Amino acid sequence: MKNAPIVGTSVPRMEGRAKITGEARYVDDMVLPGMLYGATVRSRIPRGKIKKFFFGPGIDWNEFVIVSHQDIPGKNCIALIEDDQPCLANGIVNHPEEPLLLLAHPDRHLLPKAVEAVSVEYDPLPAIFSMEESEALEQIIWGTDNVFKTYLIEKGDVDAVWQNADHIIEAEYTTGAQEQLYIENNGMIATFDPQQGITVWGSLQCPYYIHKALMKLFALPADRVRVVQMETGGAFGGKEEYPSMIAAHAALLAMKSGKPVKIIYDRMEDMAATTKRHPSRTRHRTAVDKDGRILTGEIDFTIDGGAYKTLSPVVLSRGAIHAGGPYYWPSIRIRAKAVATNVPPHGAFRGFGAPQSLFALERHMDRIAEVVGLSPAEIRRRNFLKPGQTTTTGQTVNEEVDLSKLLDRALELSNYHAKKEQFAQENQQSKHKRGMGIAAFLHGAGFTGSGERFLGSVVGVEACPDGSLRILVSSTEFGQGTNTVLCQIVAEALGLKYEDVSIAQPDTHAVPNSGPTVASRTVMVVGKLVQSAAVGIKETLTASGMLADSYSPEEFRAACRDYVAKHGKFRSLAHYEQPDGIFWDDEKYRGSAYAAFAWAVYVAEVAVDLPTYSVTVDDFVALQEIGKVLHPILAKGQIIGGVAQGIGFALYEKVIWENGRMQNGQMTNYIMPTSSDLPPIRVYFEELGNVHGAYGAKGIGELPMDGPAPAIVNAVEDAVHFPFNSIPLLPEDIFAALSERAAPETVATTARVQE
Amino acid sequence: MSQSSQARAKCEISFTVNEKLETVQVYAMERLLDVLRHELGLTGAKEGCGEGECGSCSILLDGVLVNSCLIPALQANGAQIITIEGLGSDGRLELLQQAFLDCGGAQCGICTPGMIIASLHLLKKKPHPTLQEIREGLSGNLCRCTGYMQIFEAVAEAARRGAST
Q: What was the ipTM of the complex prediction?
């Protein structure tokens, strides 16, 4: 009965054929009879009291459906962690682009003009736009102190060590907002029926988040809210939370009009109004001995949450836990804080706080290396976590990970030492300065601490009348390969063919809540549950005598078919149970933060062109230990795509703000990497396996976002010897820094050019 | 009312899409992308940016690679148009599509129809493109998922398999 393995092979993407033929149905491809189009009137000021709305001339307002907060049947909030974000403003606005009113009309061409024709009279209030202004407390815009959440992580005795340290190294690092820039803009279609309630179809990551939000907004029971995911054209965290807002808006318009309503954002609205990566500021103060060993450290990690709490506490948590990186800290104190500003709320984006705090840490390791007089490779090697040691939260590393070996392999693959030497030589004569940079990091898979236990995910596998199997999960596909890998796991678990397994469209009326599709948890956590549910099907069949212990895929299919014919519905469910030995203290923030970590060392090779100050990444090595690779092509695709976004985060993607509004909400002026901008991204895996995940897999989706930015900026410093501590790092920033550093040298260079 | 006044401004145009003659009533300056998607139900071409930057709405217009979000409908009168729906036949995939599937060239899939049309255009001009030519040939099509490498591999693989012949 033993078939060739399916896990570990690159089977065709489950929904791939639909995608390459154009048959895949995204929300904007769907049309319902009698459907109206909806649009959102938004705040144009950052903060103030709404006095009056004016509906301008030239529009026949009788033709429009108009919804305000007064039309909300339940609580006016987008339920998430806290209910502080209104669905529609009620008398006060706290950020630009905050939704005020909704309009719908059968002719979508008329909507932009109508939105433009609504004007608002405000009593403006003073607004704040930076973490520093928020901390100054001159304006209190949220709670009593502008603070959404703080964490304190403490390990050992931090205060006793400083006086005996050979070196104390202090520095501050910042990262900017980053737009997810999925190519499919956000969109939803909603219908309302007095008996059946609300149904929404949309581009989204987390069906049950929307389900929860709509229940509260409409005061409806669970069975009268239905959320269906359409094919989703990229998400990266950007469709984790904001789709609840759009679903709510479409559903309110549908309820008031009695007709289906479609809301599709255009690019500018999507970029300006929906969430982006949290800007961050990290302050490091580190004590090291003369050999470069870390003695203790204090890390102060602050993120800008925007105007409402949304997911900021969770982003902050992950950022704080990752702030110490893959190093051994005998003692450490990490203070983390998410503050409020009058900008649209920042939210989930691949990496979820970790790319921010790891950028700071990995830049800081190079700073330490320089002060101590060691190479960037050596300072890391001397401080790497080893099996048996504990992380900053006191979690014992119980995997046989060898970071020193990982580092050696990455240095060899990138030809690091030889190139570093060669560039140091050549740079003396060249205006094309080249450099090499390293980043070592880790990424925890799954929800933090007790998160998975609170989620209590449930998955199902059911036998269909034709004897094939169908996976029932709310875990969504948006490019990562959820559909494919979960089907591989079931086929492998039962010795079936890949073609014998399919996966249901995520629909809250049809699938159990397997939790949100976030936090690199799908393969590791949901995959393991799916495997267990699949085995349940087999056990039922063998227990009932319909299947022998040894069987062929055909016999299995026949047994399923017979069972369904005889008994009707045939479904096996699996519920999450916390693995043994996982302990987490939410009060003290100590214990096992994650069931597993993926580990990585990335090496970037860059060139800084001094006449133009532009940076190109010429080569990139991404080496990671991610447990077992279940699908080599998909896994590689995840890493390359993440590295590309990381390169954008480091060198291209800058949100220009003015009074809290994004000024460059277009693909023409917010620059993401094109096919011409990227180096060869060379991907390598180490496979140690992992006891917690399906077939030894760990999460990988977010990992590749963490390393590129620090590796690249470390390489830029290697090339031009300037300690850049902020990203995005644009040519004008390099120009300004280098010009200021050495005005005489710049003059001399210019003179030579003129000769 | 406003809708009827706009209807009067419509005009009739004809063009061939995927070898089928179509006649539609359109506003002269309506975007060709909208005509394809809304009037003809050809939803394979996608809107990503609406300003000709992302290439998700790429089609071939008289053999020329264009962003259909930038083409006024009237300009398509009498033209030969190829969209993603015109590739392959009788359930068979084009070599290029198969290569995208085999190499991991599609992740979320939203850029894929445009990317495949742009690749087809490239392979028609250059049956055996170098990596640099592939990079340049696809530089008008943005992809946020893949980091492009597996798309390059798909195009190179299709060239090896003889996609242009």
A: 0.96
Tokens at B43, concatenated: 């939803």
**Amino acid code (one letter) for A131:** M
Average pLDDT, chain A: 96
The pLDDT tens digits for A618-677 are: 999 999 999 999 999 999 999 999 999 999 999 999 999 999 999 999 999 999 999 999
Q: Kindly list the residues from chain A whose CB atom is less than 8 angstroms away from the CB atom of residue B49.
A: 267, 666-668
Q: Cis bond leading into A124, ω under 30°?
A: no
Domain region containing B130: 95-161
Quote the number of domains for chain B: 2
C-alpha torsion sign, points A219, A147, A47, A350:
negative
What are residue A528's phi and psi, to 5 degrees? Answer: -65, -40
Architecture of domain A16-24+457-575: 2-Layer Sandwich (3.30)
* Residue A173, phi then psi, degrees to nearest 5: -130, 145
User: pTM, whole model, 2 decimals?
Assistant: 0.97
Question: What is the CATH classification number for the domain harbouring B57?
Answer: 3.10.20.30
For chain B, what percentages of helix, strand and coil (3-state, to nearest 5) are there? 40, 20, 40
> Which residue type does B133 have?
E
Interface with chain A: mutation pick from B49, B84, B102, highest number of A CBs within 10 Å: B49
Give B43's contacts in chain A (Cβ within 8 Å).
Answer: 22, 25-26, 28-29
* A675 Cβ under 8 Å from any chain B Cβ: yes
Contacts of A296 (CB under 8 A, 6+ apart): A156, A158, A161, A162, A165, A286, A287, A329, A330, A331, A332
B41's CB contacts (< 8 A; 6+ apart) are none
Could you tell me the two tokens for A497? 């063919």
Size of interface A-B (CB pairs under 8 A): 175
pLDDT at A751: 36
Residue A448: alpha-carbon gap to chain centroid: 14
Interface membership of B57 toward A (CB under 8 Å): no
Greatest Cα pair distance in chain B:
58
Residues B131 and B77 in one domain: no
Q: In chain B, what residues touch A236 (CB-CB under 8 Å)?
A: 144
Q: How far is B78 from chain A (nearest CA, A)?
A: 24
Cβ of B85 within 8 Å of Cβ of A63? The answer is no
pLDDT at A2: 57
Decide: A364 and A173 in contact? Cβ < 8 Å: yes
Selecting from A233, A634, A668 the residue whose C-beta is nearest the C-beta of B109 gives A233
Q: Give percent of chain A with pLDDT exceeding 70.
A: 98
Distance of alpha carbon A339 from alpha carbon A301, whole angstroms: 11
β pairing state of A92-93 and A48-55 = antiparallel
Question: Taking each helix axis from N to C terminus, what angle separates A743-754 and A731-741, rounded to the nearest 10 degrees?
Answer: 110
β-strand pairing of A661-662 with A197-202: unpaired
